[in-house]
Inverse folding.
């Protein structure tokens, strides 16, 4: 009798897998995986990946992450990424590429992240847009972050910041980082590699706008030079009506031009007026400090006075054989 016709040829191989929401529950410290689903379908040449997972933290509450991507033998392209964390959302997209040097490129847009979920005494919400690139060459991990926009509210004050940060082994670059909370402003430029170059500026007329446990005014400016192992620092800081961590002071002044490992002459002088414990207003102290010289020979004078005591000390020293003498 005649044989039946052969079956039609099979279509191209398609692999599909999924992990149901009740398949895994794993705990790492205080972070617990509540469940999720991972779907992979397609061919070896190109597969579609989708992930939806939920996590919980004992302090920060629930977090949900979902994303889609296209996977092949060279890279994973992520799109439509969404993370719901600390009462806010983070939309993200990017590329994971392992063709030459393994690297990750991400763009992130976060909205209404609730800082009080992490620190309950801070009523703050943050929005930010940033780009990040992480590379893993044989020389070590390299990270670059460009903060395009950071806005929001901080203790009822307007918050805004922007700048560029690169973190590589032996090479840190902070370029034009500027941040403001209310009337308080900070600016920083820093290059730290085989050389040290940079400058900073602080103008904070109301520290309570930054942290509810702080009071007073702080301002100053300075620079960095030399190398990370042998830095040269110069600048000036001053404060008025300060209160920090249970201590208060009427005034604080510091001037410095210091190259501690150089033969060049250095100096530092500081004054502290009306230092007292907030819980013990009867204790009042004034202090002054003066130091000058170089690595081979330097001296320091310290004077402290309280309601009942006066102290004065002078020190002559030098740095020799990797220790003070």
């Amino acid at each position: 009798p005649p044989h039946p016709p052969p079956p039609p040829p099979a279509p191209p191989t398609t692999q599909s897998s999924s992990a149901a929401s009740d398949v895994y529950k794993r705990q790492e410290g205080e972070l617990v995986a509540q469940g999720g689903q991972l779907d992979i379908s397609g061919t070896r040449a190109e597969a579609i990946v989708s992930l939806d997972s939920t996590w919980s933290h004992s302090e920060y509450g629930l977090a949900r992450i979902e994303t889609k991507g296209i996977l092949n033998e060279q890279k994973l392209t992520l799109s439509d990424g969404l993370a719901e964390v600390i009462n806010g959302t983070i939309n993200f997209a990017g590329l994971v590429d392992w063709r030459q040097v393994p690297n990750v490129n991400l763009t992130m847009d976060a909205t209404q992240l609730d800082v009080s979920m992490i620190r309950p005494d801070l009523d703050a919400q943050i929005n930010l847009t940033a780009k990040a690139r992480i590379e893993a060459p044989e020389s070590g991990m390299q990270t670059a972050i460009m903060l395009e926009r950071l806005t929001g509210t901080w203790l009822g004050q307007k918050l805004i910041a922007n700048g560029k940060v690169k973190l590589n082994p032996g090479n840190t670059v902070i370029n034009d980082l500027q941040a403001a909370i209310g009337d308080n402003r900070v600016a920083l430029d820093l290059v730290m590699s085989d050389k040290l170059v940079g400058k900073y500026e602080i103008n904070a007329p109301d520290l309570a706008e930054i942290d509810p446990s702080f009071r007073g005014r702080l301002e100053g400016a300075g620079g960095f030079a030399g190398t990370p192992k042998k830095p040269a620092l110069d600048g000036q800081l001053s404060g008025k009506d300060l209160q920090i961590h249970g201590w208060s002071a009427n005034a604080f002044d510091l001037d410095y031009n210091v190259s501690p490992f150089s033969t060049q002459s250095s100096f530092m002088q500081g004054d502290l007026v009306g230092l007292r414990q907030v819980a013990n207003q009867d204790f009042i102290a004034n202090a002054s400090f003066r130091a000058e010289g170089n690595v081979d020979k330097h001296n320091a004078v310290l004077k402290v006075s309280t309601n009942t005591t006066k102290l004065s000390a002078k020190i002559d020293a030098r740095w020799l054989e990797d220790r003070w003498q």
Notes: Residues 7-29 have pLDDT under 50 and may be disordered. The two ends are 109 Å apart (CA to CA). Residues 165 and 174 are 5 Å apart (CA to CA).
